[in-house]
Amino acid sequence: MRVTNRPPILSVIVPCYNIETYVSDTVTSLVNNDQDDFEFIFVEDRSTKDKTYEALLELTKRLKHGRVIQHEQNGGLATARNTGIDAAEGTYLTFLDGDDWLAPGYLKDLVDSIQRHDVDFVRTDHVQVNGIERAVHRAPEGRRNVPLDPRTSILPVDDTTMVDYPYAWAGVYHRRLLDKGMLRFHDGLKTAEDRPWIWDLHRRAESYLVASLRGVFYRRGVTTSLTQIGDVRQLDFFRSFDLVLAELANDPEVGLLRKKALRNYCVVIAHQLLQRSRFDRPTAAKLRQMSADALNKMSEDELQAALIGMGEQRVHLLRRVRGGMKGIAA
């Protein structure tokens, strides 16, 4: 609990679910970033397989201003992050998943960056960790450490851009975004919760920059991670992209931005279909049906444009699922 009336400069929101194995590393990395004007909010999302909650209660005693909020029932990552946002008091907010960690001093550098430039949000690179392997993943915007209009980083359609780099934990966000109706996630989304979120930021925020920071370590291959579990929750990406398309409907540049969103959608559908062997048979059948439904909502011209340059395997697969092989564009 805070013992001062001064609000924190930074709130760090850490959703946690079945991550007892990793949470000690996570908290230790936050201890190595701790400052008097930082707060750390851990949202325990009713873990079912371990004692994540009990571990958090003990480990967070090492932080000057750490607190644990436990959900009455599991709500998923989006809802857990929203709980943390609602509890946050900081001028700036950032996120960290409960099985990841930060380099020492990273949070200070992150706050220095957003304060120095007074932008709405800052995005960073990150390091992906798979066992003992480390790989730097750069944010796809090449312009670094200069304020930018977020809209300028959405396009082009056929290249990887900042809306294809949706990781909420790779950055820091000014509280004023909340006042403008941004920053919260769509409650209940079990996966791809950051897709409509990142699109909204890039469409409606006024300024941002990409900082050359690489202090977030993102752990891949965690068996309890939803990305590793082939069940029906994975299919929430359909709802996520449908939300993106619905929210684009009133955008003044809807024609151009919709092309980008549809291409994103097709890329993710193809990825899931190519990985369908990890699903049980009923879920795999549902994936195929929902994929067909989503693709059939696209006009032939829209689909043709989305598939250009996507590669023969993915184009063939998506065309076959949709029905009809007309105009294959590899």
TrEMBL record:
Domain Glycosyltransferase 2-like positions: 11-142
Keyword Thylakoid appears in the UniProt entry: no
Keyword hit for Transferase: yes
Superkingdom of the organism of origin: Bacteria
Protein name as it appears in the record: Glycosyl transferase
Keywords (A to Z) from UniProt: Transferase
GO MF terms held by the record: transferase activity
Organism: Streptomyces lacrimifluminis
Pfam family, one: Glycos_transf_2
CDD domains: Glyco_tranf_GTA_type
Origin organism lineage: Bacteria, Bacillati, Actinomycetota, Actinomycetes, Kitasatosporales
